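Below is a filled-in request sheet from our internal design queue. Each sheet records the structural input a requester submitted and the sequence that came back. We keep these sheets so that new team members can see what a complete request looks like end to end.

REQUESTER: design group, bay 2
PRIORITY: normal
MODE: inverse folding
CHAIN LENGTH: 267
BACKBONE (tokenized):
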């Protein structure tokens, strides 16, 4: 029999009696717990010992989101250990104190030590950790061009373009429509800066998720016969200073923060 890597494969071995003697409500729930590593196969009192001996070693534990995050994080920390922080300050737009780099993220200080650990006076969300470490390791330190382009012009990979529009721009537009004060919150909470209206918008706002990765949010208010518009633009150097995956992660993290802000005010 092939390796057991999903709950249904475990479920086929079980009596399907839902006796609850294993401590969970159903045999399927027990199977899911085994795959997650929360239960052992011998936790089912009805399984014969020969079945347990034959299959227990073939179970592949399902990776949790925490496991997957650690798998991504550890190699990045190992890369950070090899960096010369002193020579990276200008490249990153950072400051150096001893063996620690401090980088502004949305106006807040995030400090990274020589082992890749991140500390800040504000809460360090998981979504900012990987992009921040990627920025420290891989940013080319390209000086900003001052020219703005939509996400689709950063890459020719259409799957990214579709994801960005539907997962970030459209939800952000809906939030701004339902909570017009969100723009003001971006300015006061996240150190945003309103700039001269761009791309025929009513409001143009620049945020700096990272020193050399600004983004421009352009919003046009709804009118009687026309719905609102919201588009996000990046400096043409964006992909040289941060990879697309991390740019996408940062934007989705921003969206989650904005959603929390609006929920607090709506309540």
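RETURNED SEQUENCE:
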């Amino acid at each position: 029999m092939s390796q057991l890597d999903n709950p249904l494969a475990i479920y086929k071995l079980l009596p399907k009696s839902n006796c609850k003697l294993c401590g969970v409500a159903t045999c399927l729930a027990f199977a899911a717990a085994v795959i997650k590593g929360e239960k052992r196969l011998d936790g089912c009192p009805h399984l014969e010992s020969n079945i347990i001996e034959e299959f227990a070693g073939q179970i592949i534990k399902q990776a949790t989101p925490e496991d997957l995050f650690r798998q991504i994080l550890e190699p990045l920390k190992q890369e950070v250990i090899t960096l010369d922080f002193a020579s990276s300050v200008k490249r990153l737009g950072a400051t150096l104190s001893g063996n620690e780099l401090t980088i502004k993220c949305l106006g807040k200080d995030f400090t990274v030590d020589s082992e890749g650990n991140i500390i800040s006076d504000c809460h360090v969300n998981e979504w900012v950790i990987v992009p921040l470490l990627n920025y420290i390791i891989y940013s080319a330190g390209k000086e900003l061009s001052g020219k703005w382009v939509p996400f689709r012009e950063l890459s020719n990979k259409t799957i990214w373009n579709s994801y960005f529009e539907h997962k970030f721009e459209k939800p952000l537009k809906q939030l701004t429509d339902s909570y017009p004060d969100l723009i003001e919150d971006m300015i006061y909470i996240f150190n945003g800066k309103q700039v001269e209206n761009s791309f025929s918008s009513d409001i143009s706002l620049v945020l700096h998720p990272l020193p050399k990765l600004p983004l421009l949010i352009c919003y046009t208010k709804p009118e009687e016969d026309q719905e609102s518009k919201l588009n996000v633009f990046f400096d043409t150097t964006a992909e040289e200073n941060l990879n697309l995956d991390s740019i996408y992660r940062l934007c989705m993290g921003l969206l989650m923060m904005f959603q929390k802000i609006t929920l607090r005010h709506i309540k």
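SHEET NOTES:
- The mean pLDDT is 90.
- DSSP finds ten helices and nine strands in the chain.
FILED BY: M.R.
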